[in-house]
Amino acid sequence: MSAIEEAREANRQRHWAERQQRQQERGPQGIAEAWWDQVKQVCKAESRNGNPEAWEDLSRTLENFLLRYSA
Question: How many C-beta neighbours within 10 Å does residue 47 have?
Fold first, then answer.
């Protein structure tokens, strides 16, 4: 990894840690948003690797959540 790539990665990690801290300070909604950010990253990475199952699983999970909490 080049010095530029290392610096970019360090910046990404620092930004991510700062964002997580701000989200935690916002309480349950902020924490849910932090989880959502991570979920999207995982699903995108899985898709890039040829595995659509993560998005399918997320879809089922969200459907169940809506069935549980919708009127």
Answer: 13
Q: How far is Cα 43 from Cα 66, in angstroms, rounded to an integer? A: 20
State the amino acid at position 20 in one-letter form: Q
Q: Please state, in angstroms and rounded to a whole number, the distance separating the CA atoms of residues 16 and 10.
A: 10
pLDDT digits (tens, 9 = 90+) for 30-56: 989 888 988 999 999 999 999 999 999
Of the candidates 18, 13, 47, 70, the one whose C-alpha atom is nearest the C-alpha of residue 5 is: 13
Please count the structural domains in the chain: 1
Residue 52: strand, helix, or coil: coil
